[in-house]
Structure formats: C-alpha cells, structure tokens
C-alpha cells in the first residue's frame, strides 16, 4: 500500500530533482514527488541580511510537475537555528561528541522560532489528503508545530543521522521536549537497528513509553511507530555515471599517473564524525610497520569544505593539514607522496571513476547514520577485479555491509592492519566479498528505501485518521 494523497517533502535544503548535480536522494524523492504532483518545501540556502527573525520570505517555482517552495532565513535565524542548535548541539550530540557540543547557548530559541515559522509558511500550501515526509535533525519539532496549527495530515519523519545511546541524548538540556516532539509524527524512520534500540531504550527509560505493538510506542498521549529504514543509493544512476565520459577519463588518468602505485581512497565532507585524522594516523602506522608499502601505497583523501564557520570544523582542518604534512615529510620520497589531501568537492560525475581507480575504499567514520560513500564504492568496482571496502563498524552501513573489512576507527593499529590486509587480499576473496556487498547494495537501494518508508507511513493507524473522522 502506498499513500494515495499528494506527497509533500520537507527538508532543510531542497534540490531541483531534474538537475544532474542533485544526487541520488534528490532524484529518488523527486520521482515520488513527480508521481503525485508533489510539493518540496525547505530553506532556500540564502541568508536575507535585511530579514527579521522568524520571518522567512516564501518563494515558489515549478520544476516539472513538482512545486519547489523555499523560505530565506535572516542572519540571526541562520546563525541560531542552522549553525547553532542544529550543527553545534544536535549534530555533535547525536554523533556522541559531547566534547564538541555547545550546550549552554540560547540557540534553542532560534531553532524553535525557525521551525514555527516553517510551519506557518507551509500550512497554507497544504491540501487535505497530503502525506507529509519531513527530513532530518533540523526539523524535529516541525510536526508538533504543524499539529499546533491544526494540521491533521499524516506525517512521517526520517532521521538521517544516528540516535545516540540514551545517556548521551539526555545531556541535551531540552532532550525531553525534543523526543516528545517525535510523538507528533505517525512514523519515525531511523537508519539502523542500533538507532531503533537506542530510541527504544530512551523512550522506555525517560518517557515510560511501552511498545504497544511491533514498532509502536505510546507516550505523551500519542502513539508513534519507529522503525529502521536503511537508506540506499540510486544504483542504476550511479552505474550510468560510472559509464560516462568523465568517470572513464578520471579513472584512466589516475591509473596512468599512479601506474606503479596502489591507491587507497577516502571521500568525505570534512566533518569530525568521519574519522579523517584517525584514518591518516592508521595509514601512517601502516607505513611505519609495513615497509613494503613504501613508495607504493598512496592515500588519496578528498574532503569537501563543510560548515567551516563552526569552530570545531576549523580546528579539524588544521589538525588534518598538520597530519598530512607530517606524514609526507617523514615518509615521502622525491617521487612518492604518501598522502594526497584535497580540500575540495569533486564533481559527482567523477566519483565512480575515482572509486574504481582505488584498490581500497576507506570509509572509517567514528559515527555515521549510514554513509553512502561505502555503497558508492561497492557499485563502482570492476566485478572481475574489485577493490576492498574497509568500513567502520560505527557506520550505519556496517549493519548491512558485513562482507566489508569491518574496523574500529579508534584502534589505530587494528585499522592499519586492515588496510594492509586489504592491499594484499587475494583476488578470489575480493570477488567473493564484492559479490555479497553488491547484492546487498542493489537490493536495498534508494527506491526500496523510499517505497518501504512510504508504505509504512500509509499503514500507520494514525491519530490523524481518527481526528479526521
Ligand atoms: P552525509 O554526512 O553528507 O549525509 P554520506 O552518506 O557519506 O554523508 O553522503 C555524502 C554524499 O556526498 C555521497 O554521495 C558522496 O559521494 C558525496 N561526497 C562526499 N564528499 C564528497 C567530496 N569531497 N566530493 C564529492 N562528493 C562528495 C547524511 C548522514 C549520513 C547518511 C546520509 C543519507 O550523515 O550518515 O548516509 O545523510 O541519509
């Protein structure tokens, strides 16, 4: 069963699903929106310097059959809602980094103000039988704000980042309010079973919520269904990109340039959750303990700039530059630079070619909701001569991709050993692992994810239905 009404997607940022740079998620959501003649609502990405707090300017435009509706944020709202509460409180705490969380600021007011404003702007655009799908940690209280304005439509929420263990979550001064907000939804989608178990333990301990049926919890006078829907990639789209001229060209260039060398690759946003310095330390440790890797193994790290006005990100950049420089200084030769670090985004069309050129894919976050690079790396490989995925056990993807070499990113020696093992893995083992990984990535792709979520949302015995009767 799929919901019959129009689909409304709400996310912090929106993308034109018809643009090639949009990426798998935008394309997958765009498809579902196009089918129902849907609406996509979110922040425009622009800061209106002349705007007033809580007053976003609404703009709408058509992208085929999809309506894109955006609001601008004024400087104060952007700083407190986006940089502040979302990215300096929720992001670090949900990634278990209490040491980086700024829990004493007053940014909660801006977070609530923007969610309330978004609800006010969205409400008049809604139709009676709409099905509303809200995304990610920026917008946790949006359903509660919409309900307070009388919205009775079915609403689902998907959290793209991990749920931390209850004892960490409870460090947020407003944790009760935040989690109560989730009970305004009919369905809460999480990335992994670990996330569901953390949610389950939290609501039982802090809200005395009891599971009333499979995946159903009752607390705060409401019932919510909470379940894992591990997100996937658009495999067909990524394969198409892989056959494109730009992917083939970068693959050939890399093979030529590094003809005598073996490449290990990391592609990330430069974020402290991604375990990037830990990865360089492990690589350095491998160089120190396995001299046969010298003048051979080369680590390519492509880390795109992200949230660089938040302090923790600027510190990370400095640390990484120091580590890469030191490793190259200590181990490099005139004709071999062990680490190539590029602080930039690479064009999406090149990503499959880069992944294919690397004999080892390093996806080693300290915590990650899912991590789509792990899945992209698998799809990009030559099935006859595939590379090896080294994957952190703390990425949501590790619950599905059990045939990767799973590592603990805090264990420098263990990770160095895994890198070395990956570099030297026999062909037959690489093929066997790759077959199993690819089958999993193919089966649980982004279309499966979208379909399962929307089906579950359609099946919820929503209070919304009762209220409407
Ligand atoms: P992110 O933390 O952004 O997403 P991820 O899942 O790794 O992380 O997706 C990143 C995407 O951006 C991938 O498609 C990747 O190829 C691309 N990308 C990253 N760095 C790049 C670079 N330097 N150049 C070019 N492309 C780059 C959040 C959660 C994740 C969750 C996703 C989806 O943090 O855990 O998997 O949402 O739910």
From TrEMBL:
Database matches in Gene3D superfamilies? Glycogen Phosphorylase B (3.40.50.2000)
Give the domain of life. Bacteria
Q: Which GO terms describe its biological process?
A: trehalose biosynthetic process
> What are the protein's GO molecular function terms?
alpha,alpha-trehalose-phosphate synthase (UDP-forming) activity
A Pfam family (short name) is Glyco_transf_20
State the name under which the record lists this protein. Alpha,alpha-trehalose-phosphate synthase
- Indicate the secretion signal residues: none
Give the family this protein belongs to, as stated in its UniProt record.
Belongs to the glycosyltransferase 20 family.
